[in-house]
Amino acid sequence: MVEELLLLGALDGKVVIGSMNRGGLYGASWTMDDRFTGYDAAAIAAAGFEGGKMLTRIDPDDPTTVATLESCGHRFHGSYQCCGFPITFCTKTITLIHQSLHRNSW
Question: What is the pTM of this model?
Answer without folding.
Answer: 0.68
